[in-house]
Design a protein that fits this description.
Blueprint (H helix, E strand, L loop, with lengths): L2 H33 L4 H23 L9 H25 L4 H8 L2 H13 L5 H16 L10 H24 L4 H25 L6 H8 L2 H25 L5 H8 L2 H11 L7 H19 L14
Helix pairs in contact: 1-2, 1-10, 1-12, 2-8, 2-10, 3-7, 3-8, 4-6, 4-7, 5-6, 5-7, 5-11, 6-11, 6-13, 8-10
Length: 314
């Protein structure tokens, strides 16, 4: 099997894992709010701390060479990936608190276009037709799968666009560092960095929220309704998904990877349908169809599967 085919299958598994994350995170947040209704940000931060701390502990058991003496460039790469993950998640959640879910989905899906634009600038040539058409279809599909978004120009929309930009930079940073450094080391270091950074966020969120204290956090963390979805998110959406991303994304062009990642809303919708959280709509089929078509176009109209090195500073 060709490396590009293996990478495509691996990143498909990533999107399936991320699709489940919406349900798990919603369950965890609902359980946390049942304990502390006024503690949204501490609950989110606690979820992230536990999620990535468990990944730090578990990933060395199945990723050989993830713990050893690290080089300065590996430490730098791991920190950059961690910082982008934390910043992207915080912007996404902050924006989602101010806009509707369809608007958030549409604006966040712009990371596909941002990835396309940045790779075009870095490569100093127009993107291949298949990738360009696939990116446009994937952006439309991800944005409209929950219905037409009604976008205004306010803080929430700006935060969501900022989130999309950060996620695009994270895709390009993953491409850059995993081609130069050991993916096993980068995986462990990015998990560790994210756990530490979100712990800082947790401390700040707790100290600035009079409704949440240490006892409240312990009560939330010990609640099985909160703990189990958090553990599932750690095992599948973090340890498995991000490890696959770090090992296999480098075998595909960044734009192709971004188009694949855009399939995440399809799996999230299928999960929501299977557990009765939503009902099928015409927009679900239109958006999902556009996402699938975008991936087919990107695959079939992109016969040259070479992985481009888009770094200009190497």
């Amino acid at each position: 099997m060709k490396r590009s085919t293996k990478a495509t299958l691996a990143l498909l598994i990533v999107t399936v894992s991320w699709g489940w994350t919406f349900v798990w995170m919603d369950d965890a947040l609902m359980a946390g709010k049942a304990v502390s209704p006024e503690g949204l940000w501490p609950i989110i931060a606690l979820f992230m701390v536990i999620r990535f701390s468990l990944a730090v502990v578990t990933v060395p058991f199945f990723v050989k060479g993830s713990i050893r003496r690290f080089s300065s460039s590996e430490l730098r790469g791991g920190f950059v990936l961690a910082l982008l993950l934390v910043l992207g998640f915080l912007l996404q959640l902050w924006g989602l608190d101010r806009v509707t879910a369809p608007v958030s989905a549409f604006l966040t899906s712009l990371y596909v276009i941002f990835t396309l634009l940045m790779t075009t600038i870095a490569a100093r040539r127009a993107p291949r037709k298949g990738l360009m058409v696939g990116a446009l279809l994937a952006t439309f599909g991800a944005g409209f799968i929950s219905g037409p978004p009604h976008v205004n120009f306010a803080l929430g929309e700006g935060l969501s666009v900022g989130c999309a930009f950060v996620f695009a930079v994270h895709i390009l940073a993953t491409d850059y560092y995993t081609k130069r450094e050991d993916p096993a080391a980068l995986t462990f270091l990015s998990f560790l960095g994210t756990a530490v950074l979100t712990l800082v966020v947790l401390v700040i969120a707790t100290t600035t929220n009079d409704a949440v204290d240490t006892d409240t956090l312990i009560a939330i963390a010990s609640d099985e309704a909160f703990l189990w979805p958090t553990v599932l998110s750690s095992v599948f959406a973090t340890s498995l998904a991000l490890t696959l991303m770090n090992f296999f994304q480098r075998d595909l062009p960044p734009v192709r990877a971004a188009i694949l990642y855009a399939l995440e809303p399809i799996w999230a919708s299928m999960v929501a349908l299977s557990i009765g959280q939503t009902e099928p709509t015409l927009w679900l089929y239109i958006g999902g169809g556009a996402l699938l078509l975008g991936n087919l176009v990107a695959e079939l109209l992109n016969p040259d599967k070479r992985v481009e090195d888009l770094s200009v500073a190497s």
